[in-house]
Write a structure and sequence with these properties.
six-stranded parallel beta sheet; 2 domains; Rossmann fold; seven-stranded parallel beta sheet; 13 strands; single chain; 14 helices
């Protein structure tokens, strides 16, 4: 185990999973860091839409505090933000640009950016949209922790001048995500907040298959879907599904569908946390294609492109093969994508920052002596 670290994380939300995938990503990572003995504080902006939908107000694996705005954040937490071994700022942080500037004024090292939305972030920056991160701020981070791996990492360093970019994929809490033992009641399910760019793919890979297979049952869980969507009668809708019900949800599906946002398809190597969660619950995976999928899951996922592919999978894959797909996907996740695995990756990277700083100071000392 690495030396225990004092880590402060400022992120979109830890307390509420409503309408975002950040909360479950942070929960798995921080729980893993806690198991490794690190000291943790998560700072979350107190906003009404999350305050009204909190499903983890008092986590047992880290300290959680809320702040109202930047002045409140600095008034109450400046000392901790300045003294921690590392401060990690997450993507989509409200008032993120001003907060990052304030953190640079508080500390000269140990500041990292965790981008849970890397392709979306870079697309925004290319449009000069600096909602939560300014392009000028990227070189100031000691580490750019990217949700996306592959060629994007080199692009972050070469084009955006990140000092060091490494992949820190999302992960799953293997204790909370496992098969519940319940019998399957849906043939295909999908969990995700409505997204305009994902909706045509959802139409092609779930809604149209439901129309063609009226004898089968389908389910879509997640908020913000427009009332104008024409759901077939055999598609059940669940408005919001808190994490405590995820394992039961996945366990009751013969197959689960993964649909990837357009920016993430274009970038590749951008696994959704839902992939890891479903696989941990032994729900066989059906996914649209993106580069890097085979590197992360091998052949333990059924890759589809159109409605006919989904219909074929649902009607021709027999039970032994279905169970084999589920077992191989779970084994892959437990080996490479749990919160504790990801926590060790992060802690190792943060420890290396400290080592490099000591080496820099040592070089400066030798040069002064000369």
């Amino acid at each position: 185990m690495t030396k225990p670290l004092d880590i402060v994380v400022l992120g979109l939300s830890l307390s509420s999973s409503w309408g975002n995938g950040h909360a479950t990503t942070y929960r798995a990572l921080l729980k893993g860091l806690d198991a490794e003995g690190h000291r943790l504080l998560f700072l979350e902006r107190d906003v009404p839409w999350y305050a009204q939908n909190r499903d983890l107000a008092t986590p047992g694996f880290c300290a959680l505090s809320f702040y109202c705005d930047l002045p409140d954040l600095l008034a109450r937490f400046s000392n901790r933000l300045a003294s921690a071994d590392s401060v990690v700022v997450g993507s989509y942080l409200p008032d993120g640009v001003r907060i990052i500037d304030a953190l640079h004024a508080l500390r000269s090292e140990g500041l990292c950016f965790y981008d849970i939305d890397t392709p979306v972030t870079l697309a925004k920056l290319d449009r000069a949209d600096e909602t939560y991160l300014a392009r000028r701020q990227i070189p100031g981070f000691d580490l750019y922790l990217s949700f996306t791996g592959g060629p994007v990492l080199e692009r972050l360093e070469r084009v955006y001048r990140a000092r060091r970019a490494i992949a820190l994929y999302c992960s799953v809490d293997a204790e909370n995500y496992r098969h519940s033992g319940e019998a399957a009641c849906w043939d295909l399910g999908y969990l995700g907040t409505y997204s305009e760019d994902r909706q045509p793919v959802l139409e092609r890979l779930l809604i149209e298959p439901a129309r063609r297979l009226p004898q089968m049952r389908f389910v879509v869980a997640g908020p913000q879907y427009p009332a104008t969507i024409d759901w077939p009668g055999n598609v059940e809708r669940i408005e919001h599904l808190p994490p405590a019900q995820h394992a039961s949800f996945y366990s009751r599906q013969r197959f689960t569908l993964n649909v990837t946002r357009a920016d993430m398809v274009a970038a590749g190597w951008s696994p959704s946390v839902r992939l890891f969660e479903a696989a941990a619950c032994q729900a066989p995976l059906i996914s649209d294609f993106w580069r890097g999928l085979d590197e992360l899951f091998g052949t333990a996922v059924v890759v589809v492109d159109d409605t006919a592919d989904v219909v074929r999978a649902l009607t021709t894959i027999n039970e032994p093969r279905r169970q084999d797909l589920a077992a191989r996907a779970r084994a892959c996740v437990l080996r490479r994508h749990t919160g504790q695995v990801r926590a060790r990756e992060l802690a190792s990277a943060l420890q290396c920052l400290g080592l490099r700083e000591k080496q820099r100071l040592s070089r400066q000392s030798r040069q002064t002596q000369v």
